[in-house]
Amino acid sequence: MHKSLRLGAAIAALVATPLSALPVAAQSATAQAAGASETGILSLAAGVPITLVVAKEVNSSTDKEGDPIRLTVLNDVKVGETIVIPRGTPATGEVTWRTGKGAFGKSGKLEFSLR
After folding, report:
1. In a 3-state reduction of DSSP, which class is residue 8?
2. Per-domain residue ranges for the chain?
3. CA dist., res. 87 & res. 65, Å (int)
4. Is 48 helix (H, G, I), strand (E, B) or coil?
5. What φ, ψ does residue 30 adopt, rounded to 5°?
6. Gap between the Cα atoms of 49 and 42, Å rounded
7. In 6-89, at which residue ranges do the beta strands (DSSP E only) sit?
8. 68-73 and 43-44: which strand pairing?
9. Looking at the DSSP assignment, which residues form a beta bridge with residue 94?
10. Which residues does 60 contact at the CB level (< 8 Å), separation at least 6?
11. The 49-54 sheet, strands edge to edge
12. Which helix (H) or strand (E) holds 5?
C-alpha cells in the first residue's frame, strides 16, 4: 500500500525572508500605515504565515526525490488592507526524501521542502 498526500486542510508555511510587492501607484496615508516604505514598496514582514494547499496529489509510489510539488496560496496575504500575494498564486515545493512501502503493508513516507 502506498502513502498519498491528500490535503483538504492547508499547509501553513512561514516566510523566512521579507517579500516585496509592486510599487504603490499613489502613496497614501493608508499605505504608509500598512507598511509601505518611502519608496512606495509594500513589504511583508518575515514570519507572516502563508497558507498553501497541494494542487496535485503527491504519492510515495510515483513521486521521487527532486520531483516538484505544485502548491497554491489558499487566502489573500495582506499588508494592512493591500493584497500583496493574491489567493491562487502558484508556489512550489520539492520532494526531498522518500521511502518505498515497508514490510507488512506499511505505507511509504515522503518529506518535502518549500521552494
Report:
1. coil
2. 4-114
3. 28
4. coil
5. -65, -45
6. 17
7. 11-14, 19-20, 43-44, 49-54, 58-59, 68-73, 77-79, 82-85
8. unpaired
9. 68, 113
10. 2, 3, 4, 98, 99, 100, 101, 107, 108, 109, 110
11. 11-14, 49-54, 68-73, 90-98, 110-114
12. strand 4-5
Residue with cell string 502558484: 90
pLDDT for 110 beyond 60: yes
Q: What is the pLDDT of residues 64-96, one digit of tens each?
A: 899 999 999 999 999 888 899 999 999 999 999
What are the cell numbers at 59?
504519492
Site of grid cell 496560496: 73
Length of the chain, in residues: 115
Question: Nearest to residue 50, comparing CAs of 87, 10, 8, 14?
Answer: 14
Pull the grid cell for residue 45: 514582514
Q: Which three cell numbers stand for residue 85?
A: 500575494
pLDDT of residue 19: 47
Q: Where are the alpha helices (DSSP H) in 1-115?
A: 29-33
Report which DSSP code applies to 103.
G
Which residue type, as a one-letter code, is found at position 47?
G
* In contact, 93 and 69? CB cutoff 8 Å: yes
